[in-house]
Known about the structure:
The model has no long low-confidence stretch (mean pLDDT 95). It is built from nine helices and 18 strands. The two termini are 37 Å apart. 42% of the residues are buried. The chain is globular. Helix 5 runs antiparallel to helix 9 and helix 7 (195-210) packs across helix 9 (351-370). It has helices spanning 14-30, 53-63, 72-77, 93-102, 117-130, 144-154, 195-210, 329-343, 351-370, and strands at 2-9, 34-35, 41-49, 68-69, 81-86, 106-109, 134-136, 161-169, 214-222, 227-229, 235-237, 243-250, 255-261, 272-278, 281-285, 290-294, 318-319, 374-375. Strand 5, helix 4 and strand 6 (106-109) form a beta-alpha-beta unit. The protein is an alpha/beta fold. The strands form three sheets. The protein has a nine-stranded mixed beta sheet with strand order 17-16-15-14-8-13-12-9-18. Strands 1, 2, 3, 4, 5, 6 and 7 form a seven-stranded mixed beta sheet that branches.
Amino acid sequence: METLGVVMNGVTGRMGYRQHLVRSILAINEQGGVELSGGRRVRLRPVLVGRSAAKLEAIAARHGIPDWTTDLGAALADDRTTVYFDAQTTNARVAAVTRAIEAGKHVYVEKPTAETLADALALARAAREAGVKNGVVADKLFLPGLLKLRRLIDGGFFGRILSVRGEFGYWVFEGDWQAAQRPSWNYRAEDGGGIALDMFPHWAYVLENLFGGIEAVTARAVTHIEERVDEHGRPYKVTADDAAYAIFELAGGVIAQINSSWAVRVNRDELVEFQVDGTHGSAVAGLRRCRVQHRSATPMPVWNPDLPVTEPFRDQWQEIPDNAEFGNGFKTQWEMFVRHVVDDAPFPYDLASGARGVQLAELGLRSSAEGVRVEMPPITSGVGA
Length: 385
């Protein structure tokens, strides 16, 4: 069986550890590796990298991983490693990924790929010029709810799609009387924080892959909670946006409205939901569920403020069955990227697509700061659109 060495930088963080190391890399090895063409299989050999030796040693001991180091250069110099994966904080990503590209490693990167479009494009160009394969995490596309939504789109359920309305977020505790669920750097712009930079790259690949390319954005990014308490109990001033409200104009006339907030209490079935309305039907998709209402089964509500509502609106929607086994989306995409590296299988979510996500965040923040609608031009820097 083949073995593929993977340098994993940032596994001491929540997402890098749980979704990428435990739920993806280790789970792949537990199932016997990634199946390749011709029935071959490849196992993954993780090399853990980070700044804290104590944390790395603890993770390595917990999972029986022999290779870890605080020396990124040494990990990249090892001829037995082929892929570099980055799940660090955003402001540390560009320098590390650049070093990996220069070392000839194929690179797989969490989003956003950079803090600025210029840096995101520089990474995409560097990877292309070095001839290394590259990919960006696009995990939302592999959620069961969105896979069901994709099935509906491909089957023509909606007719002509008119609009998309998305709601994402939850209340992140301020850290004073209850510990926050997210690290404090998320709320400091100087550390690469901010919900627009964090979430707009997600909305970019979701919208362009399901509904059409983004042509313009109108956004308002705000800081609702102005002071929080960090992991050490120290109050700090919030310098990044914790909510962003946006309208995205898509190719073909589709209008998408998405609210993203870490200062909202949840009154919906799932932490993220998208309602898609079309001429022939509508759907509401979340992380796992997807419900539909066809035009043949659409009731006729009548506005009457003088009487209480008697129609059970949510009960009038039909649940879409799973009809398939849905694995962990991060793991599924890891398998795709490994096949891309080893078998040259297609992988559409490259650093150029990651740059479009950073571009959307940058233009959204510009729209908010200037109070204007901003068109989103194609990326024409030579890395592809």
